[in-house]
Amino acid sequence: xxxxxxxxxxxxxxxxxxxxxxxxxxxxxxxxxxxxxxxxxxxxxxxxxxxxxxxxxxxxxxxxxxxxxxxxxxxxxxxxxxxxxxxxxxxxxxxxxxxxxxxxxxxxxxxxxxxxxxxxxxxxxxxxxxxxxxxxxxxxxxxxxxxxxxxxxxxxxxxxxxxxxxxxxxxxxxxxxxxxxxxxxxxxxxxxxxxxxxxxxxxxxxxxxxxxxxxxxxxxxxxxxxxxxxxxxxxxxxxxxxxxxxxxxx
Length: 250
Ligand code: 5IU
What we know:
Blueprint: H1 8-14, H2 18-30, E1 34-38, H3 43-53, E2 59-62, H4 72-86, E3 89-96, H5 100-108, E4 120-123, E5 139-143, H6 155-167, E6 171-175, E7 185-188, H7 207-214, E8 218-221, H8 223-226, H9 231-249
Parallel strand pairs: 1-2, 1-8, 2-3, 3-4, 4-5, 5-6, 6-7, 7-8
The protein binds 5-iodo-2'-deoxyuridine-5'-monophosphate.
């Protein structure tokens, strides 16, 4: 018999990082492994989406630098209230990719002050182990491989990136289109029930496929939800599909 994946409860038994623990606890409590990607352009759209999909997600992934009318008081404070109201975490998909000192500045300064509100962030590991030291108070999701056609994250890069991710205490998991060691949480974007691509290089797989083949932990869905006629219904649909696919993989 094939070795089965670890359940969220089994991962929670061994997880040490507080952010990994909260993610797993939230997934279990809300029976969801869905992360909605809010790639919208205004604060109103961001907050509307967060309120609608909030009940069905474990985390909301932001690209805060896409927001055209960003303001700490009118964007972040209500977003944090919605995260508390619906019990979801905030994942800023910043994909840091510089030396440690610059990342430290980008993380805490500028207009976005990501360290003030994000529960966890994505980062490249191309700057090496020490470049991740600045993310002391949040979890880091390391970019190991990308979903886009022609990505340069080949097998050799991914193997080296994985070594950095596995050895750094700030790292809770990785973004990848391949299976990774079970002590890291796996986050998989490029998930759609209806589409196989977007004509701009994105490549999609179904929730069933990424749980069966990659034993992923969390699916990340953007346009499949925020571009849907009814984002709340779409989120519920992906929540159910993701949870069923997870259960089937146990
Ligand atoms: N994203 C990917 N693929 C990757 C990485 C990040 O799609 O390999 I790293 C991000 C980009 C976007 C979201 O914010 O995940 C996916 O959005 P769509 O579901 O709309 O394609």
